[in-house]
Amino acid sequence: SHCSFVLEELKLLPADEKSRDHKARCLWFLDTLIKFSYLKVIKKKYPMGPECPHIISRKLMKNFTSLTYNNGSVQNLISASMKAKIAAYVIALALHIKNFQTDLTVLQNDMKLQESRMMDIAKAMRLKVSKAKGLLGLNDQNHKLGTLCLPLPVQKASGNKLKRKKMN
Known about the structure:
This protein is an alpha+beta fold. The protein contains six helices and six strands; from the N terminus they run ααβαββαβααββ.
């Protein structure tokens, strides 16, 4: 089954064949990225199965996993930082699909991430985050919209930096 973001967007495919094909391919890749993010340790060469082209599988393995050694064997691991990288790619692709504004709450639920984690990633990408009521009719939680605006907002320095103690 597909994630809710993809299911909603499939209902809105454009009529123009070229645009329709492009959007469908983007949605397929976004769905594949989200499914890939669910994995932890990868032992198979092609973890996404036969329906995923090998070139895509290899790219996912190369970009989003790190090699680890466990009991003398090599494994590919998707660490927390790699999951954040996947989330950033998913957000960027969703922004591309939805004309630079996307519902971060739907993506967060699809990726099974905590809201604070998703907001940190969105802020690191310099998105303007605003509140919106549930756009897609999914329960009545407050949804967060991420919008890519130019010029990019200046990144605020975190105010909770502790001063380092000088050692004598």
